[in-house]
Design brief:
Blueprint (H helix, E strand, L loop, with lengths): L10 H6 L1 H29 L40 E7 L12 E6 L7 E4 L17 E9 L7 E11 L3 H11 L9 H4 L12 H5 L6
Parallel strand pairs: 3-5
Antiparallel strand pairs: 1-2, 1-4, 2-3, 4-5
Length: about 220
């Protein structure tokens, strides 16, 4: 059977260069060949015969398995850039376990986007009558921003930013999408408005139209 020789390339190997690593691998292969030959001779002298069932290699070390039988795994070691705004639109509801201490302090925020985890939000951020009348807010859209996610918790922790309005209406839904993607939709400042033409109504001059491509 094919034999895979695995070697570690550390700082000492780097000092000796690639030739040193190649020589080390060559020595290991020679030793393995000698060991295999000696075992074969010993088996012939003692008259031990291997059955057909024993011919296949018994691999206990997963490192000796072919690549097609292995599932590659990885570990996140560092976050270069946070792409998500940590804000999401969704609904709030009471926790299922009414007898727990967490029920008295937090509510559950369920994002509309299922790629975002569910979030514990403080009851202090919720409307004052939410605990007594949770059904009144079952179709109310809220914006929540994730602030933390502890390793021993199944859910993230966050804060309610604002209430958007009834789900299904165009204005609340649009505002929620803009906030999720971090789009600034606030009013333009006076400095920006001063850059616009002040003499209204403003039209493009014929000379400007002549050197532009009309895409209207």
């Amino acid at each position: 059977p094919d034999v895979i020789i695995e070697a570690q390339f550390d700082d000492n190997d780097a000092e000796h260069g690639q030739d040193h690593l190649q020589d080390m691998l060559t020595d290991d292969i020679k030793k393995l060949s000698l060991d295999t030959g000696e075992k074969g001779k010993a088996a012939g002298v003692t008259g031990v015969h291997r059955t057909k069932q024993d011919d296949g290699p018994k691999v206990n070390d997963p490192r000796l398995l072919p690549d097609e039988f292995l599932q590659r795994t990885a570990k996140v070691v560092y976050i270069l850039e946070k792409k998500h705004s940590r804000a999401a639109t969704g609904f709030i509801k009471l926790l299922a376990d009414r007898n727990s201490e967490l029920f008295k302090r937090c509510a559950m925020f369920s994002p509309v986007d299922h790629r975002v985890p569910r979030v514990y939000v403080p009851l202090a951020d919720c409307p004052p009558d939410f605990v007594s009348k949770p059904e009144a807010y079952s179709q109310m859209l809220f914006i929540c921003r994730i602030v933390d996610w502890k390793e021993d918790s199944n859910f993230a922790s966050g804060q309610l930013c604002k209430s958007l309005g009834q789900a299904g209406e165009i204005e609340p839904e649009s505002e929620g999408i803009l906030m999720e993607y971090g789009v600034d939709f606030s009013d333009f400042s006076p400095e920006v408005l001063e850059c616009l033409p002040q003499n209204l109504p403003w039209v493009i001059s014929p000379g400007e139209l002549a050197k532009r491509r009309d895409l209207r």
